[in-house]
Amino acid sequence: MADPRFFDRQGPFALGDILARTEFRGVPDASLDRQFDDVAPLENASASNISFLDNPKYLSAFKETRAGACFVDPAQAEHCPSDTLPIVTAAPYLAFAQSAALFYPGETTSEVDVDDPNVYPTAKLGKNVKVSQGATIGAHAEVGEGTTVASNVHIGRGVVIGRNCTLRNSATVTHAIIGDRVDLGPGVRIGQQGFGFAPNPPGYVAVPQLGRVVIGNDVKIGANTAIDRGAGPDTQIGDHCQIDNLVQIAHNVVLGQGCVLAAQVGISGSTKVGNYVVMAGQVGVAGHLTIADGVTLAGKTGVTRDLTKSGTYGGFPAVPVRDWRIKVATLSRLARKRDR
Amino acid sequence: MADPRFFDRQGPFALGDILARTEFRGVPDASLDRQFDDVAPLENASASNISFLDNPKYLSAFKETRAGACFVDPAQAEHCPSDTLPIVTAAPYLAFAQSAALFYPGETTSEVDVDDPNVYPTAKLGKNVKVSQGATIGAHAEVGEGTTVASNVHIGRGVVIGRNCTLRNSATVTHAIIGDRVDLGPGVRIGQQGFGFAPNPPGYVAVPQLGRVVIGNDVKIGANTAIDRGAGPDTQIGDHCQIDNLVQIAHNVVLGQGCVLAAQVGISGSTKVGNYVVMAGQVGVAGHLTIADGVTLAGKTGVTRDLTKSGTYGGFPAVPVRDWRIKVATLSRLARKRDR
Amino acid sequence: MADPRFFDRQGPFALGDILARTEFRGVPDASLDRQFDDVAPLENASASNISFLDNPKYLSAFKETRAGACFVDPAQAEHCPSDTLPIVTAAPYLAFAQSAALFYPGETTSEVDVDDPNVYPTAKLGKNVKVSQGATIGAHAEVGEGTTVASNVHIGRGVVIGRNCTLRNSATVTHAIIGDRVDLGPGVRIGQQGFGFAPNPPGYVAVPQLGRVVIGNDVKIGANTAIDRGAGPDTQIGDHCQIDNLVQIAHNVVLGQGCVLAAQVGISGSTKVGNYVVMAGQVGVAGHLTIADGVTLAGKTGVTRDLTKSGTYGGFPAVPVRDWRIKVATLSRLARKRDR
Known about the structure:
Three copies of one chain form a homotrimer.
Chain A (H helix, E strand, L loop, with lengths): L12 E2 H6 L14 E2 L1 E2 L9 E5 L5 H5 L5 E4 L12 E4 L3 H12 L20 E2 L4 E2 L4 E2 L4 E2 L4 E2 L4 E2 L4 E2 L4 E2 L4 E2 L2 E3 L4 E2 L4 E2 L6 E4 L2 E4 L6 E3 L4 E2 L4 E2 L7 E3 L4 E2 L4 E2 L4 E2 L4 E2 L4 E2 L4 E2 L4 E2 L4 E2 L4 E2 L3 E3 L4 E2 L7 E4 L4 E2 H19 L1
Parallel strand pairs in A: 3-4, 4-5, 5-6, 7-10, 8-11, 9-12, 10-13, 11-14, 12-15, 13-16, 14-17, 15-18, 16-21, 17-22, 18-23, 21-24, 22-25, 23-26, 24-27, 25-28, 26-29, 27-30, 28-31, 29-32, 30-33, 31-34, 32-35, 34-36
Antiparallel strand pairs in A: 1-2, 19-20, 36-37
């Protein structure tokens, strides 16, 4: 279930009431009174939860789920476990989004703390915490000893910040658990909703983003960098990571320990990055990939597949840097030949 | 004429006074007392307006303009309509910039509302509008029912925001008309002046940016994304567009309905994007292009020409994605051959 | 020495006390009482300063340094001048970082002005300076006549801003000296610490960033752009530069006069850019390079070597644009041939 520090869950609801929020109308009447108390990913769902299978990549998790009910595409429905009620629909992700919005209706604005004094009375500030002009600290947030909060910073409801951190001017942090000695640059954006939506022509339905951002100790994050919270799992940044300015880290990304990301790097959703990975400026990494420990990526590299071995890579699509150099030299030679 | 919600026009001025602001000195004395009340693009200009022709691409608009006077390069002057006074100069864009600054002298700082209370008395707030700490709302701005304005947001003079919108922390909005159910991420910048200047050695003269940003309904815009206002025409974002973090949208860009732009995409000035166009991360699109409905661009694609057919494109310069894959495979094969 | 407007230096310290902060333990006892009063780069260091040689590129500066002591790798130690005490260590950059932190312990938070009123009493504001809601101006800062400071801007301690500047909403400026008629877009970040750290497994040690950002006259900087302060030397932006949105300029970068940088450009640390250089959108330039006057870079160009001649370049790695077009055409032809 979503962390109650950040998300207020409603319910339980009868299946019939849940389905009334979706476009789905095909469940046997006998099931409509059954009560559900939450939405959950396949692997964590219990008998009172509703889940979904959208991407066939997760079929094995579907076969072993303990979810009480599951939105599923007709093509995969036959694999539904016997204790799970299949709700067969051509748009399982949309139905899940609509159901999740019933349980978590306030999700999309929960980072906005209005009608507050600058520091909410229920916020807990450690010794020697300094809070500058115009900073706002939300309900039940915790800020550790010796941390400095610069002017116009926003710390959202329930956020936990460790000791001896520095939050520079106009940074915003919501839905996050942050370690000690973390340095957030000016204009950093942490914990906002990720880029998650289900098509629902003519538009899209936002999929409630129910995870968090979890940041370790001794992390530095540069100016105007954005780190979205997880969609269900958490976005994670390991100890000692050094992240430069204007970097984009999407929902569910996991960075291991000691990674170094130069300016304007972008990592797409759900990619897992190992330990001590180095990415030079303007690198882009596609989503749902795995990058091994000790990988180094040259500037502007575009990664479109898993990189399972440490070493240095370059080019787009990314290849070992030696191969990239040979490609560049080969093309230069052929072009010169043609030019003559 | 520029929207008076956002721009205070001065004048009318005699042509002689206008030209005294420019480096131009060659108009017949008989014309110097003629009065002009505004600057305008060729296609909208009336007999009391001054316009300019800089880019030969717009020659046909010049031939049909109803402008009272027009700055024009010697090479195009012969095409001037008989009712339009040609003001022949080697630097028509510079002369226009200098003239426009006479009519709109406050343009460059109009988004700064100083000496205000947090919410200007003339601002109109609908029912259930929530305004958090440190947010500022300028003169004559309108905020629709149920909209939430988080801490340290700035809504400039005359801005119109629809119903049930969410403006997250530290977002800034000026010179904009925004629909209903729009979600602006933290640190979003909407409506600032675009990147427009005329060379005037040793430096440049800012060209007053007299357009707006017009955003439809049900649009989501991610953290720290920047959308500049139009230079004369408006920058437009259609209904249902989903825009991720750290995206750049330049002046005069038009996005159709339901477009999806992933993080760190950049679209240069005056490009027109059709409906349901999808751009993956770090895509770049050059200026003054047209992208057809239904185009999908793979990550890091660089678009340098019009894309007139729907379909998926990749690479730089962009080609149909199948062709791009063949190019990648071809080069890999040649490089391997060379390496052996 | 670091500018005392921005940095509070401690000391002097005995060499023994300095080395106790590092991992180094091999200096002759006779030197341990010697007093040092600052850290400094090789070329500026005096007999009472400690310096370091890390990158062999700077060997000639090492041979001529007047530093009293110098951290140096065993391989270069033999080149140490006779008046300089070599402190031979396998990690000279780390030892320097640790020493510098002793002299400048507050460096990492000096841009945070807490417990202030919005405008510090020691700040000096010229005539007709306008300061909007929620803006903060630090101790001893100076803001010139006619400058406008929009809502929620932060001007740090000691910053100097010239006349008739505009600082738009939520911009932050620290450790900077700025000229006249400079326009800073909303969310601009100027003067934060650069991306400088020495490996110290399992993590990294921040290298105190002791330089400034120095900006000339008539400069425009777009929304959410980041310009880091120098590491020791200054980051410099020449007169008349026009910088668009979401641009990254790293520590020690020097831009000459009249440069034009389009959106999402990134320039890595210590690169020197000449006069009237133009970079189109999403260009990336590696660190420690030199770009000649009058160079133009096409969109998405990646520069990995010095460009010593003016002209237009494109591609990655960057080549003269004509060569790049031939490369693109050559590969297209070969791919089509293969496809048949």
